[in-house]
Design goal:
single chain, 214 residues, mainly beta, Jelly Rolls, 4-stranded antiparallel β-sheet, 12 strands
Length: 214
């Protein structure tokens, strides 16, 4: 059997080992690819990089996108980062660890009381910018008499969040409306529009559930 102790250069452009494949390792069991002068490491080019898992039969393959149209370089961070951090790029391929953006929402509930003698327009609360009202509830604690009506909206649309036909103040019950009004970039004054209709008794609560992006 022929043993090669060291091979330095050839007369051809390539030095190829083939047949069943190449297995090279240094004394530590790691493959080192060095430059021509053995003064540093050289680049390695391959179609895919397959990382084998010695404890299972499954591998991890690192590959590129089939729609890639230009070369680019990714520079890894200097350390492993902290718990909960994610990789971010500076737009030029330099990666760093940053805290993940909080995409959760804070849910809040606003409650406004209405009774038979309330005024026509009742200020409820101010909906923050980009918040979304999920549901409006009218809970009639004491049934009204007469023909009262109630709606919930803003100055531009008195029934934006609940119409007068979505509740019945003369019945002691709960009335829910799930809204589909999109968020807007400015705060909104939410108002209750009440008409007594001759009512002399009755009390209710208007609850609005809304989400505020954090």
């Amino acid at each position: 059997m022929l043993t090669w102790l060291k091979t330095v250069g050839t007369q051809t452009g390539y030095f190829i080992l083939g047949f069943l494949g190449v297995r090279l390792k240094n004394s530590s069991g790691n493959l080192h690819v060095r430059n021509n002068g053995d003064t540093g490491f050289a680049d390695v080019q391959a179609k895919d990089v397959i990382v084998s898992n010695n404890s299972t039969t499954y591998d991890v393959t690192v590959t590129t996108s089939g729609s890639q149209t230009a070369d680019y370089t990714l520079t890894l961070p200097v350390d492993t980062g902290s718990t909960g951090q994610v990789l971010a790029t500076d737009g030029s391929g330099v990666l760093s660890w940053v805290s993940a953006a909080d995409t959760s929402s804070s849910w809040k509930v606003e409650t406004t009381s209405v009774n038979f003698g309330s005024g026509g327009t009742i200020s409820a609360f101010t909906l923050p910018a980009n918040a979304i009202i999920d549901k409006v509830m009218v809970i009639v604690d004491t049934a009204f008499d007469g023909t009262p009506t109630l709606s919930v909206g803003d100055s531009g649309n008195n029934s934006k969040f609940m119409g007068s036909g979505d509740n019945l103040l003369t019945l002691a019950d709960r009335f829910d409306v799930f809204t589909d009004v999109p968020a807007v970039g400015t705060s909104t004054a939410v108002e209750i529009y009440y008409s007594a209709g001759g009512a002399t008794v009755g009390s209710a609560r208007v609850l609005a559930t809304y989400a505020v992006p954090l």
